Amino acid sequence: MILLFHVKGKSRKQFGFLRAAGPLTAVILGTTFVKIFHPSSISLVGEIPQGLPRFSIPKGFGYAKSLIPTAMLITGVAILESVGIAKALAAKNGYELDSSQELLGLGLANIFGSFFSAYPATGSFSRSAVSNESGAKTGLSGIITGIIMGCALLFLTPLFEYIPLCSLAAIVISAVMGLVDYEEAFFLWRVDKKDFLLWTITSATTLFLGIEIGVLVGVGASIAFVISESANPHTAVLGRLPGTTVYRNIQQYPEAYTYNGIVMVRIDAPIYFANISYIKDRLREYELGVDKSTRHGPEVERIYFVILEMSPVTYIDSSAVQALKDLHQEYKSRDIQIAISNPNREVLLTLTKAGLVQLIGKEWYFVRMHDAVQVCLQHVRSINQETKHPDPLPVDEPDIFRRLLNQIEEDLSVAKLESGDITDSQLEPLLSRSQKS
Q1: pLDDT tens across 263-306, in order?
Q2: Cβ neighbours of residue 259 under 8 Å, at least 6 residues apart?
Q3: What predicted TM-score, i.e. pTM, was given to this entire model?
Q4: Rounded Cα–Cα distance for residues 351 and 343 (Å)
């Protein structure tokens, strides 16, 4: 009957009052049936004390210390439940939610309610669903409900004794059914299987163990997913897009150029103790298995340079710095040089304080990935030429940046850019020569 009233009130505007009349009708008919037939198999609400609670100021705090852990747990669950149902109703009805105001209202209600021995109040899932399905739109509905409840406690409590619990349960079930968003589950399945798994875990736990346990399990599972994503960050091997100086993920852009003897890697997360081991393992994998289908530059037999694109790295901790030092020493023992591209100010300051800038060399820090690639390519060419035509006598060579600036006198053609045989007269080292002294 409640569902019939709800559907009828939603389908036609002239019958909108039926949405609110449905729960009331169910209670009246159920109470009337019990009052007349007195069935013993139906559970009733039972006797309710008549009158409003009296004002009193708490004086004894002997149990406060032992209740603190329980109170903190209840508070956490209450916040999650209240904000969760508020967000669900906000999304359903198309309005914005201010969580701070929501919690401020709950806090004030509980502070004033404590002087009347009131039960701690939260945003109830079931009662909020009932109010929403009954057509309540503003906070005025709460004021009216409070006035009616006060009058009922003063004058109507003898009638409540015969209200069947099954009638109240039917009201709650019919209201909550409208808040179950099946379309969201299908959307999550299409978009992200992890989110769908989280939705399934939370829904099943709430259904079988209650909303408090469901909320805690959902939050715990969400935290576990966040930790897993943080400990296994996204990294990518980069390549240069043809005809540009832009470097992108070669899996997303298979036509991008990579270079013999050079591995370019972008780290898309902060680097800290939880994920540095994963990042080091990925770097070793990239060194051994980088794609060779679109490689350019001089033919060499091994990797000479690993360039780290660190613009997405917002933070690096001491454990990660130490791991990078170990990685530098490991590469150095195999004659591989690390280059750093575009670290932000905080990351660069941390690396400088830790001595990693001096350890790697200031000349191996660059503003752009393109600049780092050009310098590394020049070194690879030099190494390759020395291997093929070793000089009998040592020759003093000018600084790498001076050689590059003297070598290029005019702009490059598009054909040279496409071939991958590129050098750039506008190299921008991150740390200038004046800073090296």
Answers
A1: 999 999 999 988 998 998 888 888 776 555 456 667 777 889 99
A2: 295, 296, 297, 373, 376, 377, 380, 420
A3: 0.60
A4: 10
